[in-house]
Design goal:
about 250 residues; alpha/beta; Spore Coat Polysaccharide Biosynthesis Protein SpsA, Chain A; ISPD_synthase_CS; Nucleotide-diphossugar_trans; 2-C-methyl-D-erythritol 4-phosphate cytidylyltransferase activity; nucleotidyltransferase; transmembrane helix
Length: about 250
């Protein structure tokens, strides 16, 4: 049975843009399609994060970055699974190139001041909460850059040979497992990505590029254990259990 298209909420307010990256594949999760489009409790994995970002006050634009082969899937998500319209673009060969293309897509609005902050999120983290997105957005506006993270006291640093390096002391600070969304002052992060492209620098995430090319003091806010990344089949099963246990819904 064909479902009617949902009413589209207008994206007229808010100077932050949410960018959701769906450039992965389904190989490690054991699927034949991009894992972002696998079902999770009646919606695609990607739709969960998109709808959460859309519901956060201050987020006025949603950019969905996908592979060229996934455009049809992305348009279905836009038409059937999200309450707010998406700006769908194709990404690059790497995560960083996809982020750069998203920032260039927004560049005119960043330059005009229509967009002041950008949040970049992995589609493969479907269970990010409204509260965490709001906290990252607030912190990014306060300091210029913010990421969510989970303290990781169980991580040891590998030293030379087969020995562990000394644990980080108080002066080095605690280790954290960094999550998304990662939020930054829009004009600053756009300039940083353009500089990285000129230099051929490739970072591990948005924060690494910011640390390399800006003076932004990247702050971190407490992340959430449920904001895990779906990589393997067991991760998808765990996400289904979390949705069921907590009674969550997309949109």
């Amino acid at each position: 049975m064909t479902q009617p298209r949902r009413p589209r909420a207008a994206r007229l307010h808010g100077r932050a843009a949410g960018v959701v990256l769906a450039g992965g594949s389904g190989t490690r999760v054991g699927a034949g399609i991009n894992k972002a489009f696998l079902p999770l409790a009646g919606h695609s994995i990607a739709a969960w994060g998109l709808n959460t970002l859309a519901a956060v006050e201050g987020v006025g634009i949603l950019v969905f970055v996908v592979r060229p082969d996934d455009l049809e899937h992305a348009r279905f998500v836009d038409a059937r699974e999200t309450d707010s319209p998406l700006e769908i673009i194709t990404g690059g060969e790497t995560r960083q190139e996809s982020e750069l293309l998203a920032l260039r897509h927004l560049a005119d609005r960043i330059d005009s001041g229509a967009i002041d902050t950008v949040l970049i999120h992995d589609a493969a983290r479907p269970l990010v909460s409204h509260g965490l997105v709001s906290a990252v957005l607030h912190a990014a506006r306060e300091t210029g850059g913010a990421v969510p993270g989970i303290p990781a006291p169980d991580i040891a640093t590998a030293g030379s040979g087969d020995h562990l390096a000394p644990a980080p002391g108080p002066r080095q600070g605690a280790l954290v497992r960094v999550q998304t969304p990662q939020g930054f002052h829009a004009a600053t992060i756009l300039d940083a990505y353009e500089a990285a492209a000129r230099d051929g620098f490739v970072g591990t995430d948005t924060a690494s590029c910011a640390e390399e090319y800006t003076d932004i003091p990247v702050s971190w806010v407490r992340g959430e254990e449920t904001n895990f990344k779906i990589t393997y089949a067991q991760d998808l099963l765990l996400a289904q259990d979390v949705v069921s246990a907590l009674g969550l819904r997309s949109g």
